[in-house]
Amino acid sequence: MGYGIMAYSVRIEHLRAPSTFASEPAAFYDWMVGLHSSAISSAQRRTALRELFFSEPHSGTDGADYGYALKVLCERFGGSLNNEYWYPIGSSGLDTVGQELARLGVKLDPADDLAFAGAPVPIPEVDDFPGIGYLTCARMNELAPALDAANLSVVGDPYVRGAIAEIQQWIHHCTEDGSDLVTFYH
To answer: Which domain of life is it from (predicted)?
Structure first.
């Protein structure tokens, strides 16, 4: 299967205090735990999800538990975006797309910005996976003109061209919706 990027359109403000956006926070949390039982199968991940959801201090130190819990929150408070060209994609693919973006004059590095920028909310450091990245709506508004002006016909590799076009779609979706982009690489 390999590694890939999963992209979510979500408002980061909802990830900072998720329980405040639920009418019945305790019931919503229980529903999330049931719905995502396979993704948060360990007690540590359920604790991480509870702490992130209720904006509690972190009791754990394993950033992976908090990273996967954050992904659950992105699924519940946002929406997943098409990632046909981003799953699977290895680190060399991230570099190749980044090089093409740079050649096109777009200041976006998939490895630095989408895979390893870090979480948009405070969590313990993730030592391995998932890699986490994000772009705020404001940053995407800055990137959009360069991406829209990029002549993708000069990109020889159709897969790389598709990956760049998919980033354009993510950015257009998020900026039109007023949401941010949060990505997970694993």
So the answer is: Bacteria
**Contact assessment for residue 120 and residue 163, using Cβ atoms and an 8 Å cutoff:** no
Asked if residues 103 and 116 have their Cβ atoms less than 8 Å apart, the reply is no
pTM of the model: 0.96
Q: What is the pLDDT along the chain (186 residues), one digit of tens a residue?
A: 579 999 999 999 999 999 999 999 999 999 999 999 998 889 999 999 999 999 999 999 999 999 999 999 999 999 999 999 999 999 999 999 999 999 999 999 999 999 999 999 999 999 989 999 999 999 999 999 999 999 999 999 999 999 999 999 999 999 999 999 999 999
What is the distance between the alpha carbons of residues 66 and 44, in angstroms, rounded to a whole number? Answer: 9
Q: Give the alpha-carbon dihedral of 19, 24, 28, 29, to 10 degrees.
A: 60
Q: Which residues contact 145 (CB under 8 A, 6 or more apart)?
A: none
Among 50, 53, 59, 75, smallest CA distance to 130 is for 75
| Unique residue bearing structure tokens 């039982």 | 37
Q: What are the residues facing 182 on neighbouring strands?
A: 8, 134
Q: How far is residue 106 from each of residues 4, 96, 103, 150, measured CA to CA in Å? A: 21, 14, 8, 8
